[in-house]
What we know:
By secondary structure, the protein is mostly helical. It has nine helices and no strands. Among the domains are: 29-80; 134-258, Serine Threonine Protein Phosphatase 5, Tetratricopeptide repeat.
Amino acid sequence: MKNLHLPIAAALIASGCSTLSPSEDPVALKMTDLEARIIRIERVVENQSLVQLATELDQLRAESQALRGEIETLRFETTNSDDRQRELYVDVDRRLQALEIAPRAFEPPPVAPQAGGFAAAEPSVPPVAARPAGSDQQSYQAAFDLIQARKYPEAGRAFTEFLAVYPTSPLADNAQYWLAETQYVQRQFSAALPEFRKVVEQYPQSAKMPDALLKVGYCQIELGDTAAARTSLQDVMRQFPDTTAARLASQRLERMSQ
């Protein structure tokens, strides 16, 4: 009797389960809910990925704009570096000349000795005020003013005339340097090179020596003689360490190696 009741009970349970609709079946409802939650999570993940990609794209655009700005700045600086360097040289040279000329302007004139070998007695009249800078200073300043006005051909002719008239002037080394510079700024490198070399060879004690040797290297680079240029720039670093010319030489050598 008990054995007969078991198949009947199983049939009733099966028939009862099969009669439930999906909307009433708790298992089906649970699966539907889980599926919906999974879909929502997937959408959130996809949206977060899109947001991240958009953020990274904005960052790349910003970096690209920044790099473009830096490139434009470097181009501008490269284009104008020679002008800025030349203006710096001009300003420093002008200030040095003011210091060099000032003491000489007040030097007393030499006293001519008398026939007996004794110096002439001082005049009883009050001494005349010392003259301003002599004609060599005036001529140099006139040529230098032309450089400041960027009239380079005229300045070159003025410095050439100065060196012809005052070859032994204390300003001759500076005049020789600026004569070479007037040709360098006009990109006349084959003409500027021997003029810079004159500073190096004829005025080894000149304050212009480091800059002149540096410009020798620059001219050699422009003329395609890189081996000689390396030697000249290395000489600047060896002979004049801890100077602006040595730092510029080091930077140019680094650029050449790159």
